[in-house]
Structures are given as structure tokens and as C-alpha cells.
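Input C-alpha cells:
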């Protein structure tokens, strides 16, 4: 089952959710929506996504947010970056979609199609 870490105020997140909804309807699949600003991930959730994304903490962060600079996070340690995402979930890049094993930051939103077969991708067109 797919899970989207979603921020309804973000246009890219809404676009990704739209594609996800359509593809899951076409393939008769269920998915979860986690509004991560309302339901923060915590340390294990963030580390789990980092592992699934196969990336460094800085790659999962919104480095242009004012909070990134206010917290003086440029060039800091991975532990401090993870701690910042725990305490300031707004810093987490969005949207992230996971199947429980692999995760993708869906920018652009069409990246979500990698979770669906080639036939499913063609049905979107």
C-alpha cells in the first residue's frame, strides 16, 4: 500500500495526490494520506524515509524555508538536520510517497508514476 506524506497547502503535493488517486482507482489499490504537519514523523519515521529515499538528510529538506536559515542549518551535521525536521516538520520536502520499501520525493508530481506499471502509466495519458 502506498502512503503519501502530504501538505494540502502545497500545489505539488495536491497534484501528486491527484495522480495517486487516479492511478489507485484505475489499479484498484488503496493508499494512505499522512498530513505530516498535523502528524509529525518523529525520529524513526524520518530515518525510515531517509533509508527508503536512499538520501542524505539535506536532500530531504526545504532549504529555502526561512526556518532553515533561522536555525542556522547550513553545513551542519546530519543529526542536527534530522532534529530540525523532527521539531520543524515544515522543513521536510514534499510530497514524499512510499510503498514501505522505496520512497520518492515527487517533484515533479509525475515521479509518482514510477510506482505503477507501464500499462498504468499509459492509462494516465
Amino acid at each position: 500500500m502506498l502512503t503519501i506524506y502530504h501538505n494540502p497547502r502545497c500545489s505539488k503535493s495536491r497534484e501528486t495526490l491527484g495522480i495517486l488517486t487516479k492511478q489507485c482507482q484505475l489499479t484498484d489499490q488503496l493508499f494512505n494520506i499522512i498530513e505530516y504537519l498535523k502528524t509529525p514523523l518523529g525520529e524513526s519515521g524520518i530515518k525510515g524515509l531517509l533509508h527508503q529515499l536512499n538520501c542524505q538528510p539535506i536532500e530531504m529538506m526545504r532549504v529555502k524555508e526561512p526556518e532553515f536559515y533561522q536555525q542556522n542549518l547550513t553545513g551542519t551535521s546530519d543529526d542536527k538536520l534530522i532534529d530540525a525536521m523532527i521539531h520543524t516538520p515544515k522543513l521536510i520536502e514534499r510530497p514524499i510517497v512510499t510503498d514501505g520499501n522505496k520512497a520518492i520525493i515527487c517533484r515533479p508530481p509525475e515521479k509518482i508514476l514510477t510506482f505503477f506499471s507501464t500499462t498504468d502509466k499509459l492509462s494516465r495519458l
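The radius of gyration is 15 Å. The domain at 1-36+94-125 is CATH 3.40.30 (Glutaredoxin).
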